[in-house]
Write a structure and sequence with these properties.
The protein has about 210 residues and is an alpha/beta fold. The protein has one domain (about 1-205): NAD(P)-binding Rossmann-like Domain (Rossmann fold), CATH 3.40.50. It is built from 6 helices and 11 strands. Helix 1 (about 10-20) links the parallel strand 1 (about 1-5) and strand 2. Helix 2 packs across helix 3 (about 80-95) and helix 3 packs parallel to helix 4. The longest helix has 18 residues, at about 80-95. It is globular, with a radius of gyration of 16 Å.
Length: about 210
């Protein structure tokens, strides 16, 4: 499959691209970095300015793209222009280019404002981006909502049921979950909240309802 990963140089993005390449997919990664991130014949790299005009973003997306991952983020520096409006512009582009599959990296409790205890601006951006994807598009979306990201070894296991708590999850496990949902039609039009847990990611995603 030809896949566009928006935010390929981020912490989750790098792990996700590596996973997708390992599966044999053709991946185009977006980044502002000049250094080529992966030495793999199935990988190419482009610069995609999320602050650009809508038409310029649409022109930048490769015509053969079959699925889009949005895993980009401003790390709190430009939430409105990047995390929110940048995401929305890629959704609009996906619809105009007839790219039906769209996978969003969001955050645990993004649509539950009563549970936000910190980084409220970040959650607000995610809230409105997620709502746009759900209510303003006809895309076959999946919204992955992990807890706090940690740079710890992945366990390959998650929890998607006992989530009324603060918790974290390894970046590697989030990237694995993102990879697993790609072709799983049972995850279409779904939000998947997750924390570190005790059940195989593959099993959770394959049986998610």
């Amino acid at each position: 499959m030809h896949i566009l990963v928006v935010g390929a140089s981020g912490r989750v993005g790098k792990e996700l691209v590596s996973n997708l390449l390992h599966e044999g997919h053709q991946v185009t990664g977006t980044t502002r970095q000049k250094e080529h991130l992966f030495k793999n014949p199935n990988y190419r790299q482009i610069e995609l300015n999320l602050k650009a005009q809508q038409k310029d973003i649409e022109i930048s997306i490769p015509k053969e793209t079959e699925a889009i991952y949005f895993v980009s983020g401003s790390r709190g520096k430009d939430i409105l222009q990047v995390d929110l409006h940048g995401a929305v512009k890629t959704m609009i582009a996906a619809e105009k280019l007839n790219i039906k599959r769209y996978i969003m990296l969001s955050a645990l409790h993004s649509l539950e404002p009563e549970k936000w205890t910190s980084i409220v601006d970040y959650f607000t951006g995610k809230y409105f981006a997620d709502l746009w994807l759900i209510n303003q598009t006809n895309l076959d979306y999946t919204i992955v909502q992990p807890g706090s990201l940690t740079e710890t070894p992945g366990t390959g296991k998650i929890d998607v049921t006992n989530l009324d708590r603060q918790g974290d999850i390894a970046i590697k496990d989030v990237a694995t979950a993102l990879k697993e949902v790609l072709t799983q039609k049972n995850t279409y039009k779904k939000m998947i909240p997750m924390l570190s847990g005790s059940t195989s990611i593959t099993e959770v995603i394959a049986n998610y309802k």
